[in-house]
Amino acid sequence: MNEEFPLEPDLIYLNHAAVGVWPRRTADAVKAFADENMRRGAADYLLWMKTERELRVRLKRLVNAASTDDIALVKNTSEALSLIAYGLEWQAGDNVVSTNQEFPSNRIVWESLDSKGVSFREADLSGDDPEAAIIALCDESTRLMTVSSVQYGTGLRMDLDRLGAFCRDNNILFCVDAIQSLGALQFDGQACQADFVVADGHKWLLGPEGLALFYSTPQARECVSLSQYGWHMVERVGDFDASDWTATRSARRFEPGSPNMLGVQALNASLSLFEDVGMAGVEAKLLGLARELVEWVEADDDLSLITPNQAGSYAGIVTFRHRYLDHSGHAALYKALMKAGLICAHRAGGIRFAPHFYSDLSGLNKRWSEVIQAQNIIE
Ligand SMILES: Cc1ncc(COP(=O)(O)O)c(C=O)c1O
Fold first, then answer.
1. Is the CB of 195 under 6 A from ligand 1?
2. DSSP state of 150
3. How many Å lie between the centroid of ligand 1 and the Cα of residue 292?
């Protein structure tokens, strides 16, 4: 894998939960596409469309969609969530059930429905049975449950099958923000009975920012009225002379205009890497590295884990605190780690490490100790 990830040797990159690293093949695809645009313009646009179709097939496989018709390409996770929130028909008194650990994209848009009389309920996930806490907030006015498959701060991995089964039994739409698990863990949108799955490609999928998956089942997207229109979302796409039109029934109905072809080239290349390695192998390697990090934190008396440590309840994120540091102390530590080339994030009031399947953790201990000593933190 080293040839695919020629990272600068002094970087220890543990930030895939924020923005991942492009594999070499993705960088090559982008360079080749730039060169082609410069030399030939869009003379081979049909080939670009072929790549776009290939990407949809890869995304279909990645989330185990029933059909590529269920896959739309949108700008980002937040846009997909907004399309859902503002496409559904709400009644005053409806509620949306979620959690108190969601990234703002999966909270703000639902809170904004307050003006329509829709309330947003956040389950506290800190107890022993987080899924039960979510389910307990649902009642006969719950129209939709929306959760992250893996929580961005704590790294808590949700039992999607259990939540999806509850939603199906209770006629509640089930929306999964899968940005923290696609590319990290195997995913099955049909098995977990998701109605909607949304995820940008720039984290674990090792693609560029600005191109996201928006999966919907045919029944679910029937409930979402359209708010964006253009040449690309009609049934007879490409028939520019037609004066009448109907929106296509496929998820392409959510794509009003020209695709992000540069992003398509890049994400398609990144996904080809996951297919070459195999998602089962990626997941096994990543969970092994996450386990190593969990044990590394647990072995240090000065550190305490925020991420739950039972197998099955975490994915690629390991977040922890230093016992001598408060919030601003962690912010300072984070800055010092970044300066020392240990690329990570300051989340959930601690330090978040997020390796990927190809990561090498051998230099971590030394780099960490150097920073801790230089920071003069009492140990
Ligand atoms: C769980 C989760 N959802 C959504 C986002 C943001 O997604 P986007 O920028 O694609 O809207 C993030 C980014 O960190 C995230 O962690």
1. no
2. B
3. 26
Determine which residue's CA is closest to atom 12 belonging to ligand 1.
103
Residues 188, 183, 14, 109, Cα dihedral to 10°: -70
Q: Alpha-carbon distance 64 to 7, whole Å?
A: 31
pTM: 0.97
> Residue 121 pairs with which residues in a beta bridge?
97
152 lines ligand 1 (CB under 6 A): yes
Q: How far away, in angstroms, is 347 Cα from ligand 1 center?
A: 13
Domain 2-23+278-374 sits in CATH at 3.90.1150.10
Mutational pocket test of ligand 1: of 15, 16, 105, the residue with most ligand atoms within 8 Å of the beta carbon: 105
Looking at residue 378, its pLDDT comes to: 54
Q: What is the pLDDT of residues 270-320, one digit of tens each?
A: 999 999 999 999 999 999 999 999 999 999 999 999 999 999 999 999 999
Q: What angle do CA 339, 345, 350 make, to 5 degrees?
A: 110
Tokens representing residue 27 in the block: 């960088």
Domain ranges of the chain: 2-23+278-374, 25-276
- β 196-200/212-216 pair status: antiparallel
Q: Quick one: fold of 25-276?
A: Aspartate Aminotransferase; domain 2 (3.40.640)
Report the C-alpha gap between 71 and 67 in whole angstroms.
8
| 87-136 tens-digit pLDDT | 999 999 999 999 999 999 999 999 999 999 999 999 999 999 999 999 99
How many helices (H) and strands (E) in the chain?
Answer: 11, 13
| Ligand 1 pocket check for 103: Cβ under 6 Å | yes
